[in-house]
Amino acid sequence: MSAAAERFLDDYVPDLIDAMEVAQDAQTIKSALARFADRAGFERFTYAAIRAAESRLFSNYPEEWVQRYLSRNYFAIDPVVVTARRSMLPFAWSGPVMGRANPEVSEIIEEAKAFGRVSGFSIPIRVGFGTMAMLTLASERPTETIAVRDPTHVTTAVALLHLNITRLGSALLNAADITLSPRELTCLKWASMGKTKAETGSMLGITEKTVRFYLEQAREKLHAANIAHAVWIATTRELI
After folding, report:
1. Backbone angles phi, psi at 150, to 5 degrees
2. How many distinct helices (H) and strands (E) make up the chain?
3. Where is the HTH luxR-type domain (predicted)?
4. Less CB within 10 Å around the terminal CB: N or C of the chain?
């Protein structure tokens, strides 16, 4: 990479941070991200919240690609996600390099090309309950020529983005549909209010063992690490 061609993502971060400080709705966030991506030389952006068994997305990709990505669990083998989990540092990537070894991965790379994801730059951060949040900028170009001077600077912007999206709620995020039963929702609601399993059982007229069963069912459906995590997910998604 020549010195003349090298660009730095840091140069565009201050405006994004300013926008995140005042963002009050989804459209403001989307506009700020689109402007940030465009100034940095990219056409597409994706914010992803990724846990071991699930991914949620906020992006300007066509809905067809978003739903395909989610329904086929591409996040489990997407080389961009795999690399992010391994390094947890900002990095540039390109499809030809990341997808050459594995036929299954190569298939994802080829599908992504049709939606303008050929090369890009990703910024992962660790957030609560074993979740990785990541902002990815992508381009139709075959190679990427942008770098980062100060990783802390760009990860701060992603942290602010994550906080805003979490604050504004699950309506912003594409996610696979999850259906909880009325009993599961009720038990989670009481758990969120600090009630013990015994107290919840007494109020509902069921045994403590049955309350534990409903909470475990909800935890599994939400792919949560524990009941506290399940309560957090259900609250974030406005299920309870």
Report:
1. -125, 100
2. 11, 7
3. 173-238
4. N
Q: How far apart are CA 53 and CA 72, in angstroms?
A: 12
**Exposed / middle / buried, residue 165 (Cβ in 10 Å: 0-12, 13-18, 19+):** buried
pLDDT of the residue at 184: 93
Mean pLDDT by 10 residues, the chain (240 residues): 67 93 84 94 94 79 89 88 93 72 81 92 91 95 85 94 80 62 93 92 94 92 82 79
pLDDT for position 120: 94
Angle formed at CA 48 by CA 47 and CA 51, multiple of 5 degrees: 160
3-class SS at 126?
strand
DSSP bridge partners of 146:
7
Q: CATH number for the 7-172 domain, one of 3.40.50.970, 3.30.450.80, 3.30.1330.10, 1.20.1730.10?
A: 3.30.450.80
| Cα separation, 83 vs 95, whole angstroms | 13
Token representation of residue 31? 């506009």
